[in-house]
Design a protein that fits this description.
160 residues, alpha+beta, 3 helices, 38% strand, globular
Length: 160
């Protein structure tokens, strides 16, 4: 075997190892829990939107399934729940208690953020077209009747 053949073999072997064992840590491992294990439970006293799904009031478990995908499932339910791709964001301070943040426009609630207890990072749920439309309509209505221009409310619920 020549030096060139050995170098090619080593490079191929290294690439194969990286393909099987990536250098980056999956984000569910960063939580310290296996994928799919709930890291928060929250009781939501109102119906709300999660992505394109409408969910009823109730107690929900939140789990990171893989990468940037979280799952909301009614507590004690055997169904697969609802999954959605989210954005991981870094916070400036550690949240001692977990919280789930909703945006409220009129009577409509939209899940916006999930903060895990004991961590500074959180996940943000992408804004849907429906939320954008309601935000715009609410802002226009409020701007016409109120000098503050505030049309939405942010509601945070403590997560267990």
């Amino acid at each position: 075997m020549t030096t060139r053949s050995i170098s090619k073999f080593a490079a191929t072997l290294f690439a194969a190892i990286l393909a099987v064992f990536p250098i980056t840590t999956p984000s569910h491992a960063q939580i310290g829990l296996p994928a799919g294990v709930p890291y928060a439970r929250v009781t939501v006293p109102f119906a709300f939107e999660f992505g394109s799904r409408h969910l009823d009031a109730g107690t929900y478990e939140i789990a990171q399934v893989m990468g940037h995908i979280i799952r909301l499932r009614k507590a004690h339910s055997v169904d697969g729940g609802t999954m959605l791709m989210v954005m991981q964001e870094d916070g400036s301070s550690i949240s001692n208690k977990g919280k789930v943040v909703f945006h409220k426009y009129g009577d409509a609630y939209f899940l916006s953020e999930v903060w895990r207890p004991g961590h500074s990072d959180h996940v943000s749920v992408p804004i849907t077209k429906t939320e954008i439309q309601l935000r715009t309509a609410t802002a226009n209505n409020v701007a016409a009747s109120s000098p503050s221009g505030l049309g939405s409310t942010e509601i945070a619920l403590l997560a267990q």
